[in-house]
Structures are given as structure tokens and as C-alpha cells.
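Worked Example 4.2. Consider the chain below.
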Amino acid sequence: MAKESKLESLRAILQTCIYLIDNGAFDRLTDDTIENATSIIAAAISPDEKLNKTEAANFMHMSTRQFDRYISYGIIPKGKKKVGSSSLYWSKRELNNLTIKHKNKSNL
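Applying the procedure from the previous section yields the following C-alpha cells:
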């Protein structure tokens, strides 16, 4: 499928969603479903933000100590180094995907 065709399909889906939202057809959706859909769409349209450890831990709603623990368990990937810097960063988009992926599987 060509990119233009994919974009037309996405436009049609989003327009249908807007119509259904405006007419109350999505009232049956759970808060988690709405939050997940919102996160996916927001991540797709916004640039990938780089977070330091404190920001990343806050984004994941945990302490930096818990964040480090999850890194050591392999649940959260190790940070990446910025070019010319020794400090680490985590991709907000990657962390957001972890949140969605693990939300129903563990107490992340």
C-alpha cells in the first residue's frame, strides 16, 4: 500500500473516530483504552523527547531507585549516551511503549 493510500485510510479512521466521539458512541470504552489510544496518537505526531534519568523515572511514575532496579531486571532498557556527553538519556516514545506494553502484564 502506497504512503498516500495509507494516509487516506488513517484520515478516514480518525474522521470516523471524531464522529463517533461527538455522538457518544465511544462511551463504552474504558479509561485505559482511551489513554492507550491517546498515547499512541500523541507519540506518532510529536517528536521523540529525550529524558534524563530523573525525568524518565518521573514519566514512568516511579522513583529513580525503582527505575534503576527495573533497568537491572531488564524491564527498562539501559540509557543511551548523547554525543559528546557522558550523561544518559531515555527516549520518551520508547518509555511510553513500555508503559503500554507492560500495563496489562505487570505492575510497572
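DSSP finds five helices and three strands in the chain. Residues 3-22 form the longest helix (20 residues). Compare this with Example 4.1 before moving on.
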